[in-house]
Specification:
heterodimer, A: alpha/beta, Nucleotidyltransferase, domain 5, 8-stranded mixed sheet, 6-stranded mixed sheet, 16 helices, about 35% helix, B: alpha+beta, TATA-Binding Protein, 6 helices, 9 strands, about 30% helix
């Protein structure tokens, strides 16, 4: 198989904790995105039989068409990569991964006879254990039962994909997705011993946003996760300094007043006098230790806890700057200044907007982290948000697939190369 | 002509191995009017970025964000002498994809791969209508570059659409 064939048929998949980004090299800079979830249809129901619904799991853009009651949503909807790791025997999660992978590859498989499968580059969490690699390869192999979809496959950790996309061999990649955040120093290869994970991501901010909505009188809406996420993305702010931002908001209520109309519905969310709480949403992701969050914890909002998944410990309450410092300090001293001088922020959880009129009070993620690191005495810091942070992993997959030669076969010791499946 | 024109990707197959460091590659190839800064070069708002060099260092991939079509020609002419060939990839999305499909007179109802000729170039067109995406690629060597085929193809693909009867009647102009 020639390099030229591979170049035309590289296919990237980023198994994010919330979104599933996928597409061939032909898509240029922007992948397709669907939510990383699957819905198990009640096949025994009369309606399913009447409507001739044959599928066990529904994924992709048409998923909302199959949803039933809110109660069944909780029972039947599966988000397989919620924390980046799937338990070995969680068959429902693996089933969703299989269905999503097939959906992605089938969507773009060329119809011409020349097509002999994609060169698939998949990216998963840095903390994913080896059995996840094995299981994924098994799934990719299964893809070829009906027709050849995967010629060869390889799997890379998400932070490495980000570093590859930016061609920065020495850096710290902070990848913050929906379920968690991974801090990974890289010096040519990821320094696995120094990887640190936080049990906080976009979903933590969603939980807080839901509490804020309840306080503002939208308790009914707070149960709809996708709506809460939307409100967070549109109204949530990241303060430079939380105390000063709250003071500013209380002194200038009209400037921070937040109102959002949900298109296609009659729903309007108006935070009114609670608009100052917009600043809490961003702060919570970066540092949940401010005393103001105690009132939410006291009222029952779950505190991000320390948990162990597989061999990895996920810290709940450690602030993000502290986590970066702890991770970097596990690396050789000589390397540390180089790591601080290139910190790359990737993942949708770093896309905080700064509205016109709130500049200086609200900031972007890079400025927030720079200031947090300065406060902790780290100098010569350069923090950069990746271009289109949501897509940088997928872009890295494409660049990696392009660069790895066709004859470089998968090696389980180095965890790199192509595993031929067809 | 639409502004900005489009994002393109170029894959350049070198005659030999690149003996310089990645960061020096662009300055080696581009003409002096490009302002080169490591992996990125800029000319009057157009930017070119070195995305990757393959491990055998005889092929590299560039992404372009063009402001003027002439910059593409300038770039390709600068590089072509050192290359066996250059593959040029266009990625169109949304309405642009539909417009280009119309320009090329290919159906945009079903997924498919089409081959056709345009201004002396053999185009390969991949259509993904359900994602409103269309990829057009073609290969040029020095012979095609010297005949200005790159600019001609580019103008046909990215030029403003011909006016419809209705727009002529109503006097709409872009």
């Amino acid at each position: 198989m020639s390099e030229e064939y591979k170049r035309e048929h590289v296919f990237g998949i980023d198994y994010g904790t919330s979104d599933f980004k996928y597409g061939p090299i032909a898509l240029g800079e922007t992948p397709e995105v669907v939510e990383n979830r699957g819905y198990f249809v009640d096949k025994d129901s009369l309606m399913s039989k009447l409507m001739d619904v044959r599928r066990e799991v529904v994924v992709g853009k048409e998923l909302p068409l199959f949803l039933e009651s809110r109660k069944s949503l909780a029972e039947r909807m599966v988000y397989p990569m919620r924390n980046g790791v799937i338990e070995k025997d969680d068959w429902r999660a693996w089933r969703v991964v299989e269905e999503l992978t097939k959906y992605a590859l089938n969507s773009f498989a060329p119809t011409n006879e020349e097509f002999d499968g994609f060169y698939l580059v998949a990216s998963i969490s840095m903390v994913a254990p080896r059995y996840m690699y094995e299981k994924l390869f098994e799934i990719f192999k299964k893809m070829n039962y009906e027709k050849t979809l995967v010629k060869a496959a390889t799997i890379i950790p998400q932070p490495l994909a980000v570093a590859i996309a930016h061609k920065i061999p020495t850096c710290v990649v902070v990848e913050s997705g929906h379920g968690n955040s991974q801090i990974c120093p890289i010096s040519m290869y990821p320094i696995r011993d120094a990887v640190l994970a936080l049990n906080r991501g976009g979903s933590s901010a969603n939980i807080l946003m839901a509490e804020i909505l309840k306080d503002a009188g939208y308790g009914d809406l707070a149960k709809e996760e996708s709506l809460v996420r939307r409100v967070k993305e549109e109204l949530g702010l990241l303060p430079r300094d939380l105390d000063s931002a709250i003071d500013y908001a209380k002194a200038n209520p009209e400037k921070v007043h937040a109102r959002l109309k949900i298109p296609g519905t009659r729903i309007v969310v108006d935070l009114g006098e609670h608009s100052w709480t917009r600043f809490l949403v961003g702060e919570y992701v970066f540092d949940p230790n401010h005393e103001i969050f105690q009132s939410y914890f006291t009222r029952g909002m779950p505190k991000p806890s320390d948990i162990k998944i597989g061999d990895t410990f996920f810290y709940g309450m450690m602030d993000m700057a502290e986590a970066i410092i702890e991770s970097v300090e596990k690396c050789p001293i000589e390397l540390q200044p180089h790591l601080y001088s290139k910190i790359l922020l990737s993942g949708g959880n770093f896309s905080w907007k700064v509205p016109e009129g709130l500049k200086g009070v609200a900031v972007t993620s890079d400025l927030k982290l720079t200031s947090m690191l300065h406060e902790k005495g780290i100098e010569n810091v350069e923090v950069k948000i990746t271009e289109e942070p949501r897509f940088s992993v997928w872009r890295g997959c494409i660049v990696y697939g392009y660069a790895v030669p066709v004859d470089y076969e998968w090696n389980w010791n180095r965890m790199e190369g192509w595993l031929y499946l067809a | 002509m639409n502004d900005p024109i489009n994002k393109l990707r170029l894959v350049c197959k070198l005659r030999g191995r690149a003996e310089v460091r990645d960061e020096e590659l662009l300055s080696n190839f581009l003409s002096e009017n490009w302002k080169v800064n490591g992996r990125i070069a800029e000319l009057d708002g157009s930017t070119v970025k070195l995305l990757s060099l393959n491990p055998s260092r005889d092929e590299f991939m560039l992404t372009l964000n063009l402001k003027k079509p002439e910059h593409l020609e300038n770039l390709v002419k600068s590089i072509a002498r050192e290359c066996w060939y250059i593959d040029i990839y266009y990625n169109f999305r949304g309405d642009e994809a539909r417009r280009v499909a119309e320009t090329l007179r290919i159906g945009f109802e079903e997924r498919g791969v089409f081959e056709l000729r345009l201004s002396g170039a053999r185009l390969k067109v991949s259509a993904y209508p359900s994602f409103k995406a269309l990829t057009v690629s073609y290969r040029v060597g020095w012979a095609e570059v010297s005949k200005n085929i790159v600019l001609k193809v580019h103008k046909k693909l990215c030029g403003a659409p011909k006016s419809s009867i209705l727009s002529k009647m109503m006097g709409w102009r872009r």
